[in-house]
């Protein structure tokens, strides 16, 4: 943190040059990143009264504790730096592209003597040929596999022709799927003809391939080979996806992206159509955060800058629903990335405008679906947690901890602690306890030990945080819950309340009560059972919490039990450790084989000596030792 930062003095020091500025809050967090053609003029505007600003920016200004800036040689450099800093720091008050997607390309390695066909997510300026981008990596992989088989393109990564003749031809040659250029069985010229056919296929001439696949699918179905027919069907879908048979326009085959957006309730979805050579190759949707009170052009500008900073392919033309800020600057930046002129257009009529309307309709549909999904998710998580709080009369239940005990007749007794925050399981905060002080099947004492350890540990962490100025993320135990849920009724609740009272903690405690069929029926709280309808979100959340606590405890108990079972057979024998145990199992395969072995056979294992061999023999022949005076028995007696 920069102390005694005088904003007025620092404003006077700002240079009249292009650059990037970073606004910091009091705790050093970067809350906004912006660019300017003139840093002095731009940054001063934030601190001048009377300017017409959105409530979001007004709120951000009140949080600025200090700022810093980076001078650049040009506004274009400032644009690139701004993008990088926004991606690195994700400032709270910047409009952010929340999706971080990369798109697959099909790459034909023409710079190689014997080219290969590969999937790549980076398009480089080289001699290779790239097709795409595509929106389905699965379809790309399926199509590449089909291409290799249809056109006999090599599968290997050998450096040819320098490695021709090294080794034997691979399995694909035996399967007649590769002509083995690695052995020189096909000339470079003949192989290149196959590659040319591949590029024809990728350019959209796929009708013959589709007809052949269709025939094979029908034949497989006629022969009742339905699984094989389904495979052909999936290949047909993949080929159609790659071919992009949805033709948009016959008159103009220019590469372009069509971008439109829908905004509602502080949420934004941007829809983008990829048109290549006049064909719609695919479409994608992106979510934008921090769009509250933004003008449409602000959101569109943020999307263009952030999306095209990361995508490997820049089309020749962008059709945008709205105008963007700094249009000339963005065109220069995109043209530099493409190494060709790029045009940004916002047509208001004609065929191009119809394409934008189509993208807009898609964005509206996706946004509507997402809002409905978000509302359903909120109802089953944060809404359900608040409903539980309302049900028992507490302020909130943002963090719920649930506990359960698992044992068999008191053996390997364990306890589980599961955590739900805002109605969702927070597995990073789950904890398991191996009970130390309880003998026998006593669930009440087991729960008393578990809760005491959990909250004593938590109080100790809180003490260290306060005394040493540590970060609050010291451990999960320092955060106490708003509500504790016990897997049981009155008895378990009273145990928890007694522990909390002894530790001077005031945390509400509920018991999750089950019916005779072991199904949750209600909550026990403040000495009364609270019932609720079985078909609501609160009921479902309580059931999920109870099931999760039970599952986590049982899994840990099973783990300890399995370890104990393995250990009890061999590791209880004096002188037999992990190395000798493994050697015995490796030599005799089973415990029964070890049991039937004589001392001489046991001693023959390199890891064993005579004393260890006699100990093993005596362990498995205890009854014989009582009546038989053998050396092995004597060594144990």
List the helices and strands and how they pair.
Blueprint: H1 7-13, E1 19-24, E2 30-36, H2 39-45, H3 55-63, E3 66-71, H4 75-89, E4 96-97, E5 105-108, E6 117-120, E7 129-131, H5 137-151, H6 171-174, H7 188-202, H8 207-222, H9 226-243, E8 256-264, E9 267-276, E10 279-289, H10 296-310, E11 317-320, H11 327-338, E12 343-345, H12 350-380, H13 382-392, E13 399-408, E14 411-421, E15 424-425, E16 431-434, H14 443-468, E17 483-486, H15 490-502, E18 509-514, E19 520-525, E20 528-531, H16 537-570, H17 578-588, H18 591-596, H19 599-603, H20 610-620, H21 622-627, H22 631-636
Parallel strand pairs: 8-11, 11-12, 13-17, 17-18
Antiparallel strand pairs: 1-2, 1-3, 4-10, 5-6, 5-7, 8-9, 9-10, 13-14, 14-15, 14-16, 18-19, 19-20
Helix pairs in contact: 4-11, 5-9, 8-9, 12-13, 13-16, 14-15
Overview features:
637 residues, extended, GIY-YIG endonuclease, 22 helices, alpha+beta, 8-stranded mixed beta sheet, 18% strand, 5 domains, 6-stranded mixed beta sheet, Nucleotidyltransferase, domain 5
Give the tally of β-strands.
20
Domains (count): 5
At the fold tier of CATH, the topology name of the largest domain is Nucleotidyltransferase, domain 5
- Proportion of residues in β-strands: 15-25%
Largest sheet: 8 strands, mixed
Mean pLDDT: 82
Label the structural class.
alpha+beta
CATH superfamily of the largest domain: UvrC, RNAse H endonuclease domain
Query: Using only CA atoms, what is the Rg?
Result: 35 Å
Task: Describe the protein.
The protein is α+β, with helices and mostly antiparallel strands. It folds into five domains: 7-94, GIY-YIG endonuclease (3-Layer(aba) Sandwich), CATH 3.40.1440.10; 105-204, no CATH class; 256-378, Ribonuclease H-like superfamily/Ribonuclease H (Nucleotidyltransferase, domain 5, 2-Layer Sandwich), CATH 3.30.420.10; 391-551, UvrC, RNAse H endonuclease domain (Nucleotidyltransferase, domain 5), CATH 3.30.420.340; 571-636, Orthogonal Bundle (DNA polymerase, domain 1), CATH 1.10.150. Helix content is 46%, strand content 18%. It contains 22 helices and 20 strands. The strands form four sheets. Strands 13, 14, 15, 16, 17, 18, 19 and 20 form an eight-stranded mixed sheet that branches. The chain has a six-stranded mixed sheet with strand order 4-10-9-8-11-12, with helices on both faces. A three-stranded antiparallel sheet has the order 2-1-3. 32% of the residues are buried.
